[in-house]
Structure formats: structure tokens, C-alpha cells
Amino acid sequence: MQGERVLEEIRALHDRIVRAQADRTLSASHSTVPPGVDPLTYALEEVARLRQTVEGAYGKTGAAPAAAEWTPRVGVWASDTRAKIVVELPGVERPDVALVVSGKTLVVRGVRREPAHDPGLPPVAVELPWGSFERRFEMPDWCTAEMVSARYTNGVLEIDATRRTAEIGLEIG
Predict the structure, then answer these.
(1) Using CB atoms within 10 A of its CB, is residue 104 exposed (0-12), middle (13-18) or buried (19+)?
(2) What single-letter DSSP state applies at residue 142?
(3) Edge-to-edge order in the sheet of strand 131-138
(4) What tens digit of pLDDT does each residue of 49-100 get?
(5) Which entry of 22, 43, 87, 88 is 20 to 30 Å from 132 by CA?
(6) Could you write out the three-class secondary structure of 11-63?
(7) Is 133 exposed, middle or buried (0-12, 13-18, 19+ CB in 10 A)?
(8) Which domains does the chain have, with CATH numbers?
(9) Looking at residue 95, what DSSP letter applies?
(10) 29 pLDDT higher than 60
(11) What is the pLDDT of residue 173?
């Protein structure tokens, strides 16, 4: 039945996005669709939307990047001539941080090591995430990798991109 095939494709996309298996107990006969809408057409449109989302996030291959185990906080500021990104990385050593510019995408990734603790002292409450992290930022159209500079001080990564005056048609004189 074509409805079951579509449902399996939806489940497979779900599994790839959230890295967990979708509920396999639902069948096509239990699916809810808006009133007055053909269920098969609705399901095919949903699959197309999910496929577009996956391709937009991971590229056409659908290969998801390694799952981040925590997400650092960020601040982003931008104008026509400058962009600034501040990433809070407390407890992350400088060698454990990587900054990559690929096309118009700037990627900050790395790892925060598990905090040292006394093995004889069991944890009661731990709100200190550790593990890998990754944040992606779309840079302005005018930005190139050569315009990006970064500074890492006391667990704070500051990334700057400044458009040179010659590129915006201004003369200095």
C-alpha cells in the first residue's frame, strides 16, 4: 500500500533528524489529516517538506553532523559593514575550539571536557554540561574568510568580520 510506504519514509526522515526511532505503532489508518484533504496527497506533501528541511540542514546527502552534546550561548550583532559574534565557552580550553569558514557559513565547534571530580564523592546535582558542541552562522553576503578574525579570552570567543572601506565604495581622504 502506498500510504504505508509514505509513512515509512516519514519515519526514516524523523529517525535521521532526531537520531531516535519514530513510533512504529501508528499505521496509515490511524494518521490524522486536516478535514477535506486527501490523506495521500497530504502525506506526500509532508514528506517533501521534511526532505527539504533535511537537505537544508545537512545538504543533499542527508548525513547529519555529529550530535552536539551541549549548546553554548551566543550573541550576534551585524550592520552593513561589520558583524560580531560572541560565543560563551566557559571551561573550554583554547586547543579544544575550532573555527571554520566554509562559503558563507561560519562554524564554531569543539569539546568541553568532563569536570574533574573525586570518585569517592557521588554527584547530587550537576548542571555543568560537557561533550561536543557546534554552532553555525550564516555570514553576510559581503563577508569572506579573509575578513574574519577571532580572539579567545577567558572562555569567551569573539569573532569579528569587517568590510573594508574600498568594498563599500567610500574614499578616505
Answers:
(1) middle
(2) T
(3) 97-102, 105-112, 131-138
(4) 777 766 665 555 545 555 668 899 999 999 999 999 999 999 999 999 999 9
(5) 22
(6) HHHHHHHHCCCCCCCCCHHHCCCCCCCCHHHHHHHHHHHHHHHHHHHHCCCCC
(7) buried
(8) 2-58 (no CATH), 74-168 (2.60.40.790)
(9) G
(10) no
(11) 46
